[in-house]
Amino acid sequence: MMTESYKVSRAHHPEDRTVIVRGTVIGGDRVVVMAGPCAVESREQVMAAAESVSRSGAKLLRGGAFKPRTSPYAFQGMGEEGLRLLREAGDRFNLGVVTEVMDASQVPMVGEYADMFQIGARNMQNINLLRAVGKTQKPVLLKRGMSATIEEWLCSAEYIAAEGNVNIVLCERGIRTFEPMTRYTLDLSAIPVVRSMTSLPVIVDPSHATGSRAYVMPMARAAVAVGANGLIVEVHPSPETALCDGSQALTTDDFEHLMNDIRSMAPIVGMRLS
Amino acid sequence: MMTESYKVSRAHHPEDRTVIVRGTVIGGDRVVVMAGPCAVESREQVMAAAESVSRSGAKLLRGGAFKPRTSPYAFQGMGEEGLRLLREAGDRFNLGVVTEVMDASQVPMVGEYADMFQIGARNMQNINLLRAVGKTQKPVLLKRGMSATIEEWLCSAEYIAAEGNVNIVLCERGIRTFEPMTRYTLDLSAIPVVRSMTSLPVIVDPSHATGSRAYVMPMARAAVAVGANGLIVEVHPSPETALCDGSQALTTDDFEHLMNDIRSMAPIVGMRLS
Amino acid sequence: MMTESYKVSRAHHPEDRTVIVRGTVIGGDRVVVMAGPCAVESREQVMAAAESVSRSGAKLLRGGAFKPRTSPYAFQGMGEEGLRLLREAGDRFNLGVVTEVMDASQVPMVGEYADMFQIGARNMQNINLLRAVGKTQKPVLLKRGMSATIEEWLCSAEYIAAEGNVNIVLCERGIRTFEPMTRYTLDLSAIPVVRSMTSLPVIVDPSHATGSRAYVMPMARAAVAVGANGLIVEVHPSPETALCDGSQALTTDDFEHLMNDIRSMAPIVGMRLS
Amino acid sequence: MMTESYKVSRAHHPEDRTVIVRGTVIGGDRVVVMAGPCAVESREQVMAAAESVSRSGAKLLRGGAFKPRTSPYAFQGMGEEGLRLLREAGDRFNLGVVTEVMDASQVPMVGEYADMFQIGARNMQNINLLRAVGKTQKPVLLKRGMSATIEEWLCSAEYIAAEGNVNIVLCERGIRTFEPMTRYTLDLSAIPVVRSMTSLPVIVDPSHATGSRAYVMPMARAAVAVGANGLIVEVHPSPETALCDGSQALTTDDFEHLMNDIRSMAPIVGMRLS
């Protein structure tokens, strides 16, 4: 279905594309790390997480202010107050801010605070949202839907590009399979496939994919080894008290350890930490 | 995750719920048929389809004015003009109108024309959209996401119910599996499972699930036999010229044949055509 | 991969093939019912099950003497003594005996007692076993592997046919998907697909697919409505004491009820009970 | 289902188990590489492959003499003559020989030639075969079924162990999902999961999983990074003429390159080449 005329296709634009978020380069031979809590919960929590992220050498802070939860009775995020805290933390620690936008109507508001829009897996085919972020020039992190084929995912990226915004970073976050021991099955073979089909950068989310802290570290290392342009990982200053997905969040110590592993591993595959 | 306190749960409301769309009852022992073209293409096409739907004894007209297509370069629907044509056809042939709403911001406009909102599989977890239709009292047809578990699907229904609108009809439309001979795998076992978990009506879409006209008829019969509260099927006056999904649309003759089969089969499972 | 030269293809042999098991015709416009316990447990149990099967009008007795269980520490079946009991019950109640053969070396022994070999889902691509039953002329019931595509399934049938035995009946028994509410997802759309690709008969196993007694009846009715050539269902005189899969076995009363439903439903789709 | 009393469980035997094949240690902190052609085709081909495997520093030669193909009309392998050639090549280049056994009755014959039995994905639940290799003391490479859960896979290993043979190496080779761009989806998260549940070694087959030479190298690197105990890869002296799966075979040059990558990467995760 995707053709060579697609703006996001490698055939249309053979060289690797790069996306710049608050001065940090994503794409090419760079490995970027985005880290932070699943959900913004309090000023104290965001600042502690941001401090850890910055200290370990990562350049982008992730965190959810609007959380699309399966149950309507689960914590739904702090909303605009959460965005304000993320912005404050980003400014204080000189980190780019990546946060989810759930609906086309939220694009202007989220755009005021964020350096990069995140489009979640459940919204990968929310066409109006894709078009709305496509009309801005702000970078977009586009997660793969949990049962989207690689081709459908690239078609969603093309919806953004077709509106004029090619500042798109793809993110593999696990697909739905029959295996119950991990929350999703992280499809790392998607990375070389994607890189052959498109020149957009592609990163990996080992936290949502596995759902267990113990599996985040090995899968993060594997993601770097397979040639991903980076990682987005959940880090929480005290995972045991997290309001959302605490079981998969790395501690700040784990995270420092992970950054060191990435620094060692990236050069073996011809990459370097951004 | 779903508990007995959920408004949509059978435990919370043991009797079958019914939803009324322009005077037609959906739920309980009724089998309702919603039919029409995938996409509204022209005044002539909608009127011909509506005439066939009405003549064969169905009560609801389906048709898409806004089409969420995988590719940004595919036909995206006629927009508000399509809604106007659907309304006109519904009024002329005394059919309730069911049409997709793709975004929370569209709810007021689509609500002006439609008798029932359809939420597509790709939007099953578009939380803002679920909340927006939940704030109306208009009936909602909620399709199952292509990789949503039954429990996640019911949680999405609860997002609507939690806002005050329990006029919800569920629709199984096939799940994504490894089998390539059909577009999706129609999960008919979901029908008895859903009916044990919730008192909401549940219907089946054999057209999108199979993707082939030849398989629509047998799967429609099976859906009635398994106890579904109805069907939504694609009918097109000339499928070979359809702008969208022509290969799965029934001809008007096929459709008449199908309605007759349903009339024979429903009583065997204690149901009757609505 | 499958071509028109395959013996099992509809292109090669356009008319429906029929298979005769102890005088009972399977295929064409006939709906056959095979019923009995998951595993043979005792003389008393097999005789009670066979009596119920016969009294309700079914013609074939199923039961496992060799059980391929996931765990090595689960009940593995009675072995040859179980085969002897099945044969005795079949002879007493004039029922054909269908039972699983797990290995090529067992073919002669199982063939002494059974009227039809069953090849289980886990053995669908056990090539040596396929060839071994292909060298006999005894009817074979070939279950679909839990993750086999329809084409792979037909290729397995061709392994049998290539050796000279075309007395093959296919059996859809559910495929593995992400949905946890049923044990497998019964792929009823496979029935019309299979019937278009091959002239072999195809039946449905709603017991293993759903794993729950409550879902067996509606799925059995749906299987008849979709055009299957029959059913294989588990019936146990006292399911609560069953050594294997009791939760999915019908009681003898349920079974009688089911046979009556099938008698009513088959004529609507142009079929009749064999 | 699996309990702490299972011989293969980590709870039962907390320390890593090692398996020795012709003097080469598999397990613990070792990364072993098994390489060779998909199928043995001729003396010349096996010798050329074995020479390359040996020269690049791998210790085990893989190759199929009996090939379980989907179609009965595809090349089925050279049979015992193929085993003889593998043995000759293994002896000449001092490589352990790993080859598939398809049926319990073949165990004695294959055992005469092979240093390690391979049980293929399609036979993971061939109970009689599992028991037959369990009655020997020869090492067994047990591939995961294409739709087997991790727990079912370990239960199959327990069938072997229950007979007295714990010389078992597990092999992840891709699971069946909806994604069509790779033949299977390599489930690398299975590696840390398996290592937490069992003390058996586990290796990865990137060749069958991806089905494309271009993806074998990155996935092989990722497998080492995630902590696998080794790899099994297809190498062919002239892939373009291969009778089986040529599109996924590495050339001998690619393979040498891969061995060098593994030597660099293993120490970063605390491992070393065996």
**Biggest contact:** A-D, 39 and 39 residues
Q: Specify the oligomeric state.
A: homotetramer
Mean of residue pLDDT values of chain A: 96
The main sheet of chain A comes to:
9 strands, parallel
Uncertain regions of chain A: pLDDT < 50 for 5+ in a row?
Answer: none
Can you characterise this structure?
4 copies of one chain form a homotetramer. Chain A has 274 residues and is an alpha/beta fold. Chain A has helices at 43-55, 80-93, 107-113, 127-134, 150-162, 190-197, 206-210, 213-225, 252-265, and strands at residues 19-21, 24-26, 30-36, 60-62, 96-100, 116-119, 140-143, 168-172, 202-204, 230-234, 272-273. In chain A, strands 3, 4, 5, 6, 7, 8, 9, 10 and 11 form a 9-stranded parallel β-sheet that branches. A two-stranded antiparallel sheet of chain A has the order 1-2. In chain A, α4 links the parallel β6 and β7. In chain A, α8 (213-225) runs parallel beside α9. The first copy, chain A, is globular. Chain A starts with 18 loop residues before the first strand and ends with a strand. In chain A, 65% of the residues are buried. Chains B and D meet through loops of B and loops of D.
